[in-house]
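seq/struct pair 1
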Amino acid sequence: MYSFSKPIRVRWIVAVMVLTLTGIGGAWQFARSLSQPHPERYAPGVLYGGIAQQQLLSRPVAREYLSTFHTQETLSSCGPSSVLNVLNSLGIPIANENALFDSNAWGWLSVRLQGITLDDLASLVAERHIGEVTVLRDLSYEAFLDHLKRSNNLDNRYIVNFDRKPIFGVPVGHFSPIGGYDENSDLVAILDVTPGYGPSLVPSKLLYDAVQTTDSATGRSRGLIHISNLTGMAGRKDVRR
């Protein structure tokens, strides 16, 4: 059974206290403002909208996502939404984010209130038994690029945890799947799960800098979740087609 680490439980209690003291309405409006896209704040070199959508259609991994892509159901559920999209891209249909938590109502409530950490999200992925799950932190830029290149392989899936501010100008931690990397343009396909954002193409160094930020909940840097060794898994698409 999936369970949250101590920092998550502490944050849940703090979140309840904040909501009680400030009022649910005010907290909701503040959180909502952080989730809204503001293209005028985007960093130079970030492509979005129709241009990004067209280019993504040429990426084999991105195509696996785009046919059945789901946006996050709550303001803080970008992590579970990313996992749901990974599963759907592998031909494993999941009805909604809540289904990822089985009967663990506490876990789902905690995520809805204040999100999830990188390590806890990796544990949630591991419980689905879809392959080998690895958390990648504090990578050198060269090692980061190596993993971006691997994201083009249909036998791999990556979820990236980054701070939106360096890329989108909004200071909030976020999760989304990676849909591939183009070495010629040096652009990474970010399949953003937040409604209104849509897919974006982001320069690799810009994404790297956003990943090297610190998650205040854990005091540790953000990173990648790598899901590998997918070939031969029962009940899923043939990734070698």
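seq/struct pair 2
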Amino acid sequence: MELTEQQIQRYSRHIILEQVGGTGQEKLLSSKVLIVGAGGLGAPAALYLAAAGVGTIGIIDADKVDLTNLQRQIIHHTGDVGVEKVASAEAKMRAINPDVKVKTYHQRAKADNIREVIRGYDFVIDGTDNFPAKFLVNDACYFEKIAFSHAGILRFDGQLITVLPGQTTCYRCIFHAPPPADAVPSCSQAGVLGVLAGVVGSLQATEAIKYLLGIGDLLTGTLLTYNALTMEFRKVRLKRNPECRLCGENPQITELKDEEQIVCDLKDCKR
């Protein structure tokens, strides 16, 4: 692929970076990233990946834009309320960069469809908002051997880790199964600072770009946590768990299944 004059101008701030250059930008334009979830995390990730010139961006989400989404899901606007999230996201990505090919999947990621959806992508961004979906993304990426970025946010706290399946710590190495019903509230129950999604989702996009370019140090084997109230980032080193039910020495999980979604009553959730 040879960059056009217009592309050289568009991506000039990338191209002058020694670690990117014209070759790196061409690599981005030929890369494919899938975003699971067009919500708080997926929204900033999608915008920045499109602006960066990632050539093909897939986005999967079964929901429609709701008024409560607009406090943090910056890819959606007031006029998009009632519109499919994937359609709303596609319009904004195409508007910011016509170079980008957007593939939309207006469906819920499930055990019987996710492997087919993610197959062929170079990197996956987990922008889901519930534990069963996060385990599903982790397991599907493991079976398809596709690198991905996990992230989660709640109230004022966020966390993320990058996983190279079969090589580094996976999500199940850290969290063995979805928590019980009385353990963790959802964002709709406990709230979330809107801008927190922008910070963490942008970090996920950063990890994707670094992986695609083969530069820098990825958050592999490292859980990065962030607290917006104290403005503190913390890195926690995590080793692969030899007893992991998915990637351990004696794996017990050999096929995908949909975990049960358990939502706690807020008054019973541990705070």
